[in-house]
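name: query_chain
kind: protein
chains: 1
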Amino acid sequence: MMSASVERSLKHNFDRQEAWNRTHAYSYELEMNNRYHDDQARRMHAEWHAGRPVVVDPQHVDYASLPPYDGSVSHPTPPLHHSQWIDPRQQEGASQQGGSSSGAFAFGKWSDMMSSIFGPPQPCYY
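structure:
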């Protein structure tokens, strides 16, 4: 039989451990959520750079229906590098039209205005 003080200290230690576990469980969930959002932002950024349409929540992949993995990896050929500030589809449209492009930001009109002020773009001097 245990004395009351031993029981009290055991209960106190158990409660303290439970509070500690609850605190860490919450911070672990926060970490998982933050990692999910980081991965999602990274994936959307990579898709935008690759010129693919950006989907916030992609469709679920049924991995059981996929063919078995045979070990071969075929990496896609990366597209020609483009500026990260210009939408790649808009850039293609501007090169096909030859003049100003009609996009969300009308970047072609803006660059036409800048070249009318500062002249044609010059090569970098640094």
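note: Helices lie at 4-49, 88-97, 107-118.
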